[in-house]
Specification:
Bound molecules: coenzyme A
Radius of gyration: 18 Å
Number of strands: 12
Number of domains: 2
Low-confidence stretches: none
CATH superfamily of the largest domain: Gcn5-related N-acetyltransferase (GNAT)
Structural class: alpha+beta
Order of helices and strands: HHEEEHEHEEHHEEEHEHEE
CATH class of the largest domain: Alpha Beta
CATH topology of the largest domain: Aminopeptidase
Largest sheet: 12 strands, mixed
Strand content: 25-35%
Helix content: 25-40%
CATH architecture of the largest domain: 3-Layer(aba) Sandwich
Length: 304
């Protein structure tokens, strides 16, 4: 993908998703949220297009989070569906996952679509747990103290601390690129929750129109509490911090993807008022390997 492809990529993506979701105006899919430009600017070498007669007719994005990779959104112009373009777009992504030597790779798709399950199963991705895309109204409340990545005096030190934490969740997991993209591309920021100097949890959040969140929203793109004894309490404090961050940003909605496979984390999110907006399913390459939605993890993310 090249920067000059982005208008075409964005238009096809909205049309494809709007069509499959049967929206009255398909081009209005994703509203004022942006998934194409944000992801391209964060990782231009992790995006590919399909062209027909020099025109963009499809695209796919991937993310490289250290030892973990995921792909999406994948989209093809609706008048060209069923001709093998989607499958061909998956080829460079699968080659990249092999080149990057990821331990695990995944994606998020429509849970009720046999077409989607079939497409991905053909490429060796197998269904995992339901992923529930949730939203919560941002409430007024007590202040929670947390640091912001962009305020850290030593950004490299903070990235190192975060990597040490994510390594406990999933060996080799590295969110550095997402953290840097949020801070440097004006997409949002990352929250660091510390106690007695130790990092207890962190969250990468996008805020507002033109980001993955969309207007009047804060989207928790990834959050993790340090595993081990007391993780559930750390997770609760981390969710408090995300809500406080959203409140400070002046947005009304906090959105987050919850894997139903992370049982206690999911239950706790529902208990504090996160409500399902949409449901999808995660799918995994090499599902026999330990994956990023283990039952005991206190992690928030979706692979949309
Ligand atoms: C999903 C999508 C990218 C697939 O692209 P595509 O170019 O149509 O995919 P392909 O032609 O490679 O088809 C892949 C498989 O899907 C199945 N399929 C595709 N269109 C189908 C249809 N209309 N009915 C039934 N099965 C269909 C086929 O089994 C095909 O496998 P085959 O090669 O063995 O026949 C495209 O439909 C799209 O853009 N959808 C909207 C956005 C979206 O849903 N993205 C994926 C979200 S995770």
């Amino acid at each position: 993908m090249l920067a000059g492809d982005l208008d075409g990529v964005d238009g096809v993506m909205r049309l494809a998703f709007g069509t499959i979701r049967e929206l009255p105006d398909p081009a209005a899919a994703f509203g004022d949220a942006d998934l194409a430009r944000t992801r391209f600017r964060a990782a231009p070498e992790c995006a590919w297009t399909a062209e027909l007669d020099g025109e963009v007719v499809g695209s796919v994005f991937a993310a490289r989070w250290g030892s973990f990779g995921f792909l999406g959104p994948l989209s093809v112009r609706p008048d060209l569906w069923g001709r093998g373009i989607g499958s061909r777009l998956l080829a460079p992504v699968l080659a990249a996952f092999a080149r990057w030597e990821v331990r695990q790779a995944g994606l998020f798709t429509f849970a009720g679509s046999l077409t989607h399950l079939g497409l991905y199963q053909k490429h060796a991705f197998w269904p995992g747990a339901l992923t529930v895309l949730t939203v919560k109204a941002v409430e007024h409340g007590g202040e929670t103290s947390y640091a912001r990545y962009s305020d850290e005096l030593d950004g490299t030190g903070a990235l190192h601390e975060i990597r040490a934490l994510t390594d406990l969740v999933f060996p080799g997991l590295d969110l550095s690129r997402e953290i840097l993209a949020a801070a440097t591309l004006g997409l949002g920021d990352s929250i660091l929750l510390r106690r007695d100097g130790a990092l207890e949890g962190f969250a990468v959040c996008h805020v507002g129109a033109g980001t993955e969140a969309g207007g009047d929203a804060c989207y928790v793109k990834f959050a993790a509490a340090r595993p081990g004894e007391g993780a559930s309490e750390r997770f609760e404090r981390l969710l408090d911090a995300c809500e406080a961050f959203a409140r400070t940003a002046g947005v009304a909605r906090l959105t987050a993807g919850a894997s139903a496979g992370r049982h206690d984390a999911y239950r706790r999110m529902l208990a504090r008022g996160f409500r399902a907006e949409r449901i999808g399913v995660s799918m995994w390459l090499r599902p026999e390997e330990p994956c990023l939605e283990a039952a005991g993890d206190y992690v928030v993310n979706d692979l949309r």
